[in-house]
Specification:
By secondary structure, the chain is mainly α. The protein is built from three helices and two strands, in the order H-H-E-E-H. Helix 1 packs across helix 2.
Length: 62
C-alpha cells in the first residue's frame, strides 16, 4: 500500500467518523491493480483526493 493511500485512509476515517480499520476493510483492488472502495461515500472522497493529489503533484492521470 502506498503512503498516498494510507494518508487518505487516515484522513477519511477522521472525516467520516469511522476507524481506519473500517476504511481499510472497504479497500479493494481491481483487475489492473487500481484501488477502489466498495463503500460509495468513501470511493467518492478517494476519487476527489486522487484528483487533488494529481493536480498538486503534476502527475497526469494519477
Amino acid at each position: 500500500m502506498s503512503e498516498h493511500v494510507a494518508s487518505f485512509e487516515k484522513w477519511v476515517a477522521d472525516e467520516m467518523g469511522h476507524t481506519v480499520a473500517y476504511i481499510t476493510m472497504r479497500r479493494k483492488q481491481n483487475a489492473v491493480g487500481g484501488v477502489y472502495y466498495d463503500h460509495e461515500e468513501i470511493h467518492k472522497r478517494y476519487r476527489a483526493w486522487c484528483a487533488g493529489f494529481s493536480s498538486k503533484s503534476g502527475l497526469p492521470g494519477w
